[in-house]
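EI: anyone free to look at a 122-residue chain?
SC: sure, send it
EI:
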Amino acid sequence: MFYSGIDQHKRFSYITTVNDDGIIIKQAEIKNNDFDILNYFSPFGKEHLATVETTGGWYWLNDLLFSNGINLKLAHAIIAKEIARIAFYVLKYKSDFNNHFKGIDLENKKSFQCPPITSPDV
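SC: here you go
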């Protein structure tokens, strides 16, 4: 299984893909067009989960990936920002991580989770 995080902007996206072990397999800055995005995902096959922030431009990306067998999951923008902040903190102050962030479980913050996307028709 492969997992990709998409940082989508108006004209381009940054995409990072990892495997089950969390090892980065591929990273790229690509233009937001069907050809370049499908070309990025083509080596990975169908067992793939991608995630994008809930910003205004994710709808067409969902349609494109869904029609090519890649599931897209939405990440709440506030939670994504908080995860990035925590990751930065961990990298900068590794020894203090357990003291300051003990017990944080973002998976169980139900009020911040977005509903799953089932199909482009929804």
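EI: The helical segments are 34-41, 59-66, 77-92, 97-101.
SC: 👍
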